[in-house]
Amino acid sequence: MKAKENITERKLVVSVVLRAVKDYIDGHNPNKIGQLKAKGLDHELTQLEKNCKSARFWLYEERNSDYIFSFEKCCEIISISPERIRRGLRQLIEARYATPKREIRRAVH
Predict the structure, then answer these.
(1) Residue 106 lies in a domain
(2) Is residue 49 part of a domain?
(3) What's the CA gap between 17 and 74, in Å, rounded?
(4) pLDDT digits (tens, 9 = 90+) for 56-85
(5) How far apart are CA 67 and CA 26, in angstroms?
(6) How far apart are CA 67 and CA 13, in angstroms?
(7) How confident is the prediction for the chain on average, in pLDDT?
(8) Could you tell me if residue 102 is inside a domain?
(9) Helix 42-56 crosses helix 2-26 at what angle (to 10 degrees)?
């Protein structure tokens, strides 16, 4: 019975981590944000922003590793590095959604 409980616990933890990752990514997606604004879905937009902010706090700022559902504890349970997830998220957001930097040209006098 213990093995089955362990699998169930791991599935739950994976779901929690995936939800936070999804909420964080969705909150940075200009297409999703633009669609909600265009449709006048202010409540959904506010919820998206809240979910992203909560996910960011949980993923990057909260450091209570004693709490059973802290990000670090969840990563420990599913045997993945928290820093690897954080680094991957930063790279993904930057690659997908970062505004391209314009080249600044100086006038030659």
Answers:
(1) no
(2) yes
(3) 7
(4) 999 999 877 778 889 999 999 999 999 999
(5) 26
(6) 13
(7) 89
(8) no
(9) 120
